[in-house]
Design brief:
The protein has 422 residues and is an alpha/beta fold. 36% of the residues lie in helices and 13% in strands.
């Protein structure tokens, strides 16, 4: 099936149960077992089925199956937020004494998590150039457990050299993790380009209405073989897990990465997604392709308007032909579309602040991917935890304004921006 069909039908059989056309909400904490043997079999993985909603839930299971199919993966697992998806993906492979390599162009919350919070767990983050991966391989050592990057970065709107990153990861036996939140599964499928694990903040374009917080992790097929081939680097997948009665993950005929997140991390840390949020995301994912197409076409129109405006110094949008990221956007993204995120530069911080304070249709909000157009100042909000030096290295300036272009009529959006800029 094609992605538009998967988004409507994937993971759900309406002929089961009562035949409900809308996926039912299993709004429950726990589940009754047939008997003690059934309960024991579920915990021993001899049978598969719901145990406790922190671990599994029938409504969430539909969303997980649907997303795995959308991304061309073997399995997926929903978690409470995009941040928890990143955290779980990293700590699923890294521990104290290890290091990870992260892109120089990332969402501010991810930077803080991966360079400060995870450092307290004894995991070091080293930064590489995502533009061309020119300094990536030289930083890999025998303690490197993951390479983390965004396919389309927020707020720099830069496209990673995905092919180069994947080649280096495979050559060195290091897991690659791609945050595909901005590009979305409608425009890009990292697994098809060889990425091992994909994460999303489903709070963004997947939801598209600013009503739900969620995150998801998707793994490619064949990771068990990858872990076995790189046993020295990922021994906790190939040796007995004392916390789960000696389970060896690579011996289980199930996708290993998500299985370990579920049995070790969701079990112990518990940042699970609520069934109601899963149900909301199932509704909105059905229109993802339609919405992202409109977000992208609207954003291109707005980017061209800003590019021609005399008060705008520069525009970051890969859909513009003279943009340095244009060739990569054409190479990786469906139809060369570049989603709905734009950033642009004005002369001074005061001008940036004035633009943000002068718009009417645009809401001053730090979310992205909403049906309503949003505007923010990354340096003082989403990236405010970073030093001036780190901001500059990350491509975020005091003069940067970020837009998330919604589904309104572009004539109205242009009129609003033009008044604010003048």
């Amino acid at each position: 099936m094609q992605n538009e069909t998967i988004a409507v039908h994937g993971g759900y059989n309406k002929k089961e149960g009562y035949g409900s056309m809308s996926v039912p909400i299993a709004q429950t904490t726990a589940y009754a077992f047939r008997d003690s043997e059934h309960a024991a079999n579920l915990f021993a993985l001899k049978e598969l089925g719901p145990i406790y909603t922190r671990l599994t839930n029938p409504t969430t299971d539909v969303l997980e199956q649907r997303y795995a199919q959308l991304e061309g993966g073997a399995a997926a697992i929903c978690v409470a937020s995009g941040q928890s998806a990143i955290f779980y993906a990293i700590v699923n492979v890294a521990e104290a004494g290890d290091n990870i390599l992260i892109s120089d162009k990332l969402y501010g919350g991810a930077v803080t998590l991966l360079t400060h919070t995870i450092k307290r767990f004894g995991i070091e983050a080293k930064i590489f150039r995502s533009e061309d991966a020119s300094d990536l391989e030289e930083q890999i050592d025998d303690k490197t457990k993951a390479i983390f990057f965004e396919s389309l970065s927020n707020p720099q709107i830069a496209v990673a050299d995905i092919e180069a990153i994947v080649d280096i990861g495979k050559r060195n036996g290091v897991l690659t993790i791609c945050d595909n939140t901005v590009a979305t599964a409608a425009l890009f499928n990292p697994i098809k380009w060889g990425v091992d694990v994909v994460v999303h903040s489903t709070s963004k374009y997947t939801n598209g209405q600013g009503t739900t917080i969620g995150g998801i992790i998707i793994e490619r097929d064949g990771l068990a073989e990858f872990f076995k081939a790189n046993e020295n680097r990922y021994s906790h997948f190939t040796t007995p897990d004392a916390s789960y009665h000696g389970l060896v993950y690579t011996d289980v005929p199930l996708p290993n990465f998500c299985l370990r997140v579920r049995l070790a991390l969701l079990r112990d840390i518990g940042a699970a997604q609520s069934p109601h949020n899963s149900w909301l995301l199932i509704q909105t994912i059905e229109t993802l392709a339609l919405r992202v197409d409109k977000h992208s076409s609207n954003a291109l129109i707005i980017a061209k308007f800003l590019e021609a405006h005399d008060k705008v110094k520069s525009v970051n949008y890969p859909g513009l032909e003279n943009n340095s990221e244009y060739a990569k956007a054409q190479k990786y993204f469906e139809g060369g579309k570049a989603s709905g995120l734009i950033s642009f530069e004005v002369d001074t911080y005061e001008e940036a602040k004035n633009v943000i304070d002068s718009v009417n249709l645009f809401s001053v909000v730090v979310n992205i991917g909403d049906s309503k157009s949003l505007i923010t100042h990354p340096a003082s909000t989403t990236h405010s935890q970073m030093s001036p030096e780190d901001l500059a290295a990350n491509g975020v300036n005091p003069t940067t304004v970020r837009l998330s272009i919604g589904l309104e009529n572009t004539d109205d959006l242009i009129e609003d921006l033009n008044k604010a800029l003048n």
